[in-house]
Every structure is written in C-alpha cells, then in structure tokens.
Write a structure and sequence with these properties.
Length: 324
C-alpha cells in the first residue's frame, strides 16, 4: 500500500474525518485491485461496509486538551470517555442505589433549579484501595454521558507555591468549560499537606484555596474527591460534600459476585462459592485478579474449563501477594 494513502488514513483518523478516511480506504482498495490482490481488496470493501453502520468518527466528541503545569509542562489532568457501566460495579446495595439516584437527579437538574434548590454536585468517596472508587467514578461519568477529567491532587502541587494556586485555578476553569465529571484522586494529600511541619502558612493557603474552589463551585461539572485515607482529611472537609459514600472491603457475597461475572460458564458454581470464602478480607480488585489468574491457568493448560486445582492455585497466588 502506497505510503501516501497510509498517511491520509492516519491524518483522517486524527481529524476524526469520516469522509477522508473512507476516501483513503477506497484508494487503497483500488490500488490492491490493480495489483490483483483481489482477496484483500474484497475483505477491505467488506470491512468498510460493515463499519459504515456502527462507526461514525464524526460523532466522536472532541475533548479539549487539559491545561499544563507552566513549570514542568506536564498536563494537570487527563480526560477520557469511559465506558464502564454502573451495573457492572459490585457495590453494597445502598451505595449502588445512591449512585443510581444521583444519576437520575442530575438529569432532572432543570426541575430542581426551577424549585430554587441548590444542585448537589460534590461527592466524596472513601475506602480501601481496589474497592471501586476510580471505577465507580468512571461508571458515573458513563451513565451521565459526560467526559471524565482525572486529576491527582498531588500532581497539582508545583515546586512554586504560587504556581500551585494557578494550577488549581486552571483545573477548575477547565472543568467549568463544559459538563464533565472531575475526579480529584488522592484527595488525602491535601490533608497531609496541612500537617506538613514545613508549613509556613503558604501551604495552608493552598489547602484553603482548594477548599474554597470546591465550596464555591457552581459550574456545570460534578466534582468527585476520592481517598484511601479518610482519617487524614481535615474535619472541615466533610461538610463541603453533598454526597459522602464509603466503598468498604467486599463481603463474601460481593466477592462471589465478582468471581461469578468473570468465571461464569468456565467453572463449577460450588468452586466459586468456596473461592469467595478464601478471599474474605481482600478488595474487589483481588477477586478480579484471582478470577483472571484462574482463567489464564486454564487457557495455558489448553483447557476450556477451570479446574478446582487451577482455582486453588489462583487463590494461593492472590492471597500470598500484598494488596494494600
Ligand atoms: N466494586 C467493584 N466492582 C467491580 N469491580 C471492581 C470494584 N472495585 C474494584 N474493582 C476492579 O478492580 C479494579 C481497581 O479498582 P479501582 O476502582 O481502581 O479501585 P480504587 O480506586 O478504589 O483503588 C477496577 O478496575 C475494577 O476492575
Ligand atoms: Mg483509585
């Protein structure tokens, strides 16, 4: 295939230009036909037709580039369109209900606005690592049909304190430029900053600036703060959030549910039940790890079915390693 067509193809993808993309593929098909590569030409034509109903580049949202730290030129956040769904998350029923309700509520903001009620747009999620904070925020963004902006709070801290304040301002301005979900991950690093013995008042100003940004936020985005260490959060922080939810370690039933979703049809139900028992005390992510480890073992042994021994070995691998 001529280099120029390949370049056209990539350029068209970069611009999400459906028409240019199709023209480039057509040119490649004609060229392959001329070279008598009929099978390849036919396959390409078929692929182009199949994709025409399911893929439209023109519909792909163009996401604005996140702001940069002036000093290091590193992005202050990342932006993505997640595709995880809330019903794929294994959450305690009350938390699941809370998040579902929140999604519905955001869809009905106009009614609440008319009634003169303040919007609930600040969420705090806390709990041990691997129990679904980040993944639930991704699911929330998907359900709301909003892009997700992820910023690590410690990543906003510049070596120049003045720059940190400016980073925060830039991040919140960015999040206010549209309807997004803004995830402030590692939120506890703010609390830690307060305790920092080198604190000469400057750092305190930064912490207060974050609190003020959150307090004063009335833009179209939803702000979600997530932390593994709620104990280091300043007591003054909690009341600034409209929704506060704990995502704790899973109970046996939740572990079972994760194993079942991944291992369904590959192993005996009885084995799943006993495996879940063995994982009590570990996070959701560990159950996921164990399930994939078991399947990997069966695939490498060229079996379709996960045997009890393979499951046992997977549990051993999971419980022997460190999770937190
Ligand atoms: N509650 C959950 N339900 C389903 N999968 C989960 C859950 N919690 C964690 N996982 C799985 O473990 C991985 C890590 O979880 P994550 O949400 O990043 O944890 P956290 O942000 O709380 O540390 C996720 O990508 C997901 O696949
Ligand atoms: Mg996380």
């Amino acid at each position: 295939m001529a280099g120029q067509h390949l370049k056209d193809l990539i350029a068209a993808y970069g611009r999400r230009d459906d028409l240019q993309f199709r023209r480039a593929v057509q040119a490649i098909i004609q060229e392959e036909e001329a070279k008598k590569h009929t099978t390849l030409a036919r396959d390409l034509t078929r692929l182009l037709t199949v994709n025409s109903s399911s893929v439209s580049f023109n519909e792909a949202p163009v996401l604005p580039e996140p702001p940069l730290d002036r000093d290091s030129s590193t992005p202050l956040a990342s932006i993505s369109m997640p595709n995880r769904r809330l019903n794929e998350q294994v959450l305690r029923p009350d938390i699941s209900h809370l998040l579902q309700e929140f999604v519905e509520e955001v869809g009905r903001w106009p009614e609440l606005d008319t009634a003169g009620l303040p919007r609930r747009n600040r969420i705090l999620l806390y709990g041990p690592p691997g129990c679904g904070k980040t993944s639930s925020v991704e699911a929330l963004a998907t359900e709301l049909g909003r892009p997700l902006i992820t910023a690590r709070v410690d990543g906003l801290m510049s070596s120049y304190l003045g720059e940190t304040a400016s980073n925060l301002r830039k991040l919140f301005e960015y999040a206010s430029s549209g309807a997004y979900v803004l995830l402030l991950d590692e939120f506890d690093s703010l609390g830690k900053l307060r305790d920092d013995p080198s604190d000469h008042g400057e750092l305190r100003r930064v912490v207060n600036a974050v609190l003020q940004q959150i307090d004063a936020y009335d833009g179209p985005s939803i702000i979600v703060a997530a932390t593994n260490h709620p104990s280091v959060l300043d007591p003054a922080l909690w009341r600034r959030f409209d929704v506060v939810a704990e995502l704790p370690l899973p109970e046996t039933l939740e572990l079972q549910s994760i194993l079942f979703r991944i291992l369904r049809g590959r192993t005996d139900l009885f084995d799943i039940d006993s495996t879940a028992q063995d994982l009590v005390g570990l996070p959701h992510a560990a159950a996921e790890f164990a399930a994939y480890s078991a399947i990997r073992r069966s695939v490498l042994a060229r079996n379709n079915h996960v045997s009890s021994a393979q499951l046992k070995a997977a549990i051993h691998e999971t419980t022997q390693r460190r999770w937190v």
